[in-house]
Amino acid sequence: MKLMSKEKIALFTIFGGTGDLARRKLYPSLFNLYRKGYLQDHFAVIGTARRPWTDEHYHEVIADSLADLDVDDALVQKFASHFYYQSHDVTDVQHYITLKKLSQKLDDQYGLQGNRIFYLAMAPNFFGTIASHLRSENILTPNGFNRVIIEKPFGRDYATAKELNDQLSATFNENQIYRIDHYLGKEMIQNIPAMRFGNQILEALWNHDYIDNVQITLSEKLGVEERAVYYDNSGALRDMVQNHILQILSLLTMEQPANFDEDGVNAEKVKVLESLHQYTSDEVSTNFVRGQYGATDTVTGYRQEDKIEPDSTMDSFVAGKIMIDNERWSGVPFYVRTGKRLKDKFTRIDVVFKQPLTNIFQNLSAENQLATNVLTINVEPEAGFDLQMTGKQVGQGFATMPVNLHYQHDAQELADSPEAYERLLHDILNGDATNFTHWHQVAASWKFVDVIQKYWDEHQPEFPNYAPGSMGPQAADDLLTRDDRQWVYKD
Ligand SMILES: NC(=O)C1=CN([C@@H]2O[C@H](COP(=O)(O)OP(=O)(O)OC[C@H]3O[C@@H](n4cnc5c(N)ncnc54)[C@H](OP(=O)(O)O)[C@@H]3O)[C@@H](O)[C@H]2O)C=CC1
Ligand SMILES: O=C1O[C@H](COP(=O)(O)O)[C@@H](O)[C@H](O)[C@H]1O
After folding, report:
1. Which CATH class is domain 10-151?
2. What is the average per-residue pLDDT within 47-56?
3. pLDDT tens-digit profile of 151-187?
4. 37 is in an annotated binding site
5. Each residue of 395-452: pLDDT tens digit?
6. pTM for this one?
7. What is the sign of the dihedral through the CA atoms of 278, 280, 285 and 290?
8. Ligand 2 atom at minimum distance from 153 CA
9. What mean pLDDT, rounded, does the chain reach?
């Protein structure tokens, strides 16, 4: 019996081939796909940007980008030999004529069967121009597949996202567009559907009868770093909530898809995102909190960061309470928070279950409290989950105590787990868009976020309002205390 090869065949064209994303994420991910055999002899990469590099210099850059990996030099050289550099400005039509010739040459040389993947790793204002030139200059092929990968941000609000989508749709069908949200490539985020729909003991309780509240925390220790210009025009709400947090929320709350595939998952995510309770302006002020970090002796404040406006009112922190207007989630708050310069770098989801209606052990001792059942999904840096339960203390008599069921991927599993971009590039080679954001999800997310942003734009904040190393402003805690709740993870 002949074994099916796992090799995938494609020409990648990376717009922004000299940029930070390409060097830090894309080249190492492509290399990992190569050393695992998903890419072999039949692939080539054209890197393109304005600076005048030679192929030789490009190969050195590729090798440098792999320096952190423990790899054999000969293999790196063999891998790098598949890379070609073309210097040009994407706004210049001549660029595409040269690109077309090079693409055809490489297609013949490597036997690429007309399969093309265009990665737009550039500022979003170029996406529309690139897409329209790819069509007008006939760079798309009639014989193989044509797929385009779009980086974030996908617009700044619903209107700009729609404009961008219309531009892309003039060249590509929805099933050719892969909108990247790298959180959807993370191991434990992909684990959410498995945990929910693979375990009746969870899914049976996964509703407002048993769940009290859900908390999603995406906490970052670093500040804006080298992306200050982008960040000061975006802020935490647009940078993290519109995409990553609402995507995670949709996986946690969607109904069971008819099939676990692109169409099934997309249909259910869209439904739940379209059911997010839309706040009025007044409700925004009570349900969403923004923050900006100040300075300490050792940490630069947001407004003092390089390339940040000294009077910037941009949010480097956001916390909010999200409600879903459907039967399953009626009355269940989803508390979310994310920010820069917080206490630590981690991502976790806490699902807090309701208490039993009575505590039959309390008559034995007032100390016999029942632990709150909390399912914590540890996304990063640890990957796994904890379930807090009530148990009996060992020994004579009867006393209760909280016990923790803990599962964590071990070091080998973590090492074997592909990095998010590697996983998502593999999906794209397979033509599987299950872990990508479809247009109607983007549209619903922006419509929800736009209301909050509009209120914020109309009201001046008092910034800075949180200290680096904390978990954000006091108001983020008050959001829960007001509801007689608290964050499961506290500083
Ligand atoms: N870096 C990251 O960690 C992340 C980035 N992203 C997104 O990825 C995209 C790229 O980000 P990043 O790599 O950081 O950005 P960089 O600024 O590092 O790279 C931009 C790239 O675009 C090229 N470029 C700029 N103008 C032109 C032009 N007119 N014609 C041709 N090439 C041009 C630059 O090269 P040259 O100057 O030589 O022309 C460079 O290769 C953005 O959409 C960003 O939001 C998303 C998540 C994380
Ligand atoms: O998309 C983004 O994500 C990163 C955080 O990603 P992580 O995988 O390190 O958790 C964030 O720093 C950046 O501002 C944002 O654009």
Report:
1. alpha beta
2. 97
3. 999 999 999 999 999 999 999 999 999 999 999 999 9
4. no
5. 998 999 999 999 999 999 988 899 999 999 999 999 999 999 999 999 999 999 999 9
6. 0.97
7. positive
8. 16
9. 96
CATH of 184-420+439-481, one of 3.30.360.10, 3.30.430.20, 3.40.718.10, 3.40.50.261: 3.30.360.10
Which residue in 150, 134, 138, 147 sits closest to 173, CA to CA? 147
> What share of the chain has pLDDT > 70, as a percent?
99
Please, are residues 397 and 387 in contact by the beta-carbon 8 Å criterion? Answer: no
Question: What's the mean pLDDT in 328-344?
Answer: 98
Confirm or deny that 476 is annotated as ligand binding: no
For ligand 2, atom 13, which residue shows the shortest CA distance? Answer: 239
- Distance in angstroms (rounded) separating the CA atoms of residues 395 and 392: 9
Q: What stretch(es) of the chain map to CATH 3.30.360.10?
A: 184-420+439-481
Residue-level pLDDT at 415: 87
409 C-alpha vs ligand 2 centroid, how far in Å? 22
What integer is the mean pLDDT of 343-371? Answer: 93
Task: Say whether 244 is catalytic.
Answer: yes
Looking at the chain, which residues constitute the CATH 3.40.50.720 domain(s)? 10-151
Check whether 490 is labelled as a binding-site residue. no
User: Is the model's pLDDT at 2 over the cut of 70?
Assistant: no
Residue whose CA lies nearest to ligand 1 atom number 5: 21
For a ligand 2 pocket test, name from 240, 247, 378, 424 the mutation site with the most ligand atoms within 8 angstroms of its C-beta. Answer: 240
Which ligand gives the minimal distance to the CA of 123?
1
What residue's CA is closest to ligand 1, atom 48? Answer: 21
What was the ipTM of the complex prediction?
0.98
Residue closest to 245 by CA, chosen among 206, 276, 286: 276
CA of 74 to the centre of ligand 1 (A): 29
Q: What is the per-residue burial (b if ≥16 Cβ within 10 Å, else e) of 241-261?
A: bbbbbbbbbbbbbbeebeeee
Dihedral sign (CA 480, 281, 229, 134): positive
Helix (H) or strand (E) holding 77: helix 73-80
Is 23 annotated in some ligand binding site? yes
Reported as type and span, the H/E element at residue 129 is: helix 127-136
Sheet of strand 384-392: strand arrangement: 288-291, 317-322, 334-339, 211-219, 346-353, 374-380, 384-392, 400-408
The residue from 95, 244, 426, 438 that is catalytic is 244
Atom of ligand 2 nearest to the CA of 244: 1
pLDDT in tens, 294-309: 999 999 999 999 999 9
Give which of 3, 11, 4 is closest to 428, Cα–Cα: 11
